[in-house]
Write a structure and sequence with these properties.
This protein is of the alpha+beta class and 166 residues long. The protein folds into two domains: 131 residues, no CATH class; 27 residues, no CATH class. 16% of the residues lie in helices and 46% in strands. The protein is built from two helices and nine strands. The strands form two sheets. Strands 3, 4, 5, 6, 7, 8 and 9 form a seven-stranded antiparallel beta sheet that branches. Strands 1-2 form a two-stranded antiparallel sheet. Strand 7 and strand 8 form a beta hairpin.
Length: 166
Amino acid sequence: MAALMASMNLITFTSAASVTPYLVDPWTSGNGMAEANSIGYNYGYKIDEWDSTDPTGTHHVTVGGFDFYITISNVVYDEEEIVLFDWESTHPIDAVIVKGDTGAYVFEYDPPAYSDTDLYAPSEKGISHVTFCWNTPDFVIPETPWGVLGTTLTMFAAAALYTRKR
């Protein structure tokens, strides 16, 4: 867990996030899709206004034909600003953008993750918003000129030839 030490309204983090974030400063805010696209991902879901609303709880994500849930928990405040949080998802997440002050930290996961703990904004500032990013699955069945039936028959033929050669 994160070790929090408060001294004269200063807070210091010892991160337990599973990955080390990289900094983008200045960060150009936009909607969830625009932010995800700006760092190379196809889809994004933004949870906005962390400075005025408590994001704790489960958020229903319906973006680009996807339908899943993201839960925000263990939110830590310094005075009235959120400075630390955990997340969990029912869909694999490739990156989480945590915006604070003029910059954003990007926490990238390879392989994609279903959860992480103790995420934070740059410069130990309050979090203004968070964007969850993901891509479509990499597995694609190759198509043939004969459609799905032709693809299936081609795969069976390849398997039969492979078996006969052994």
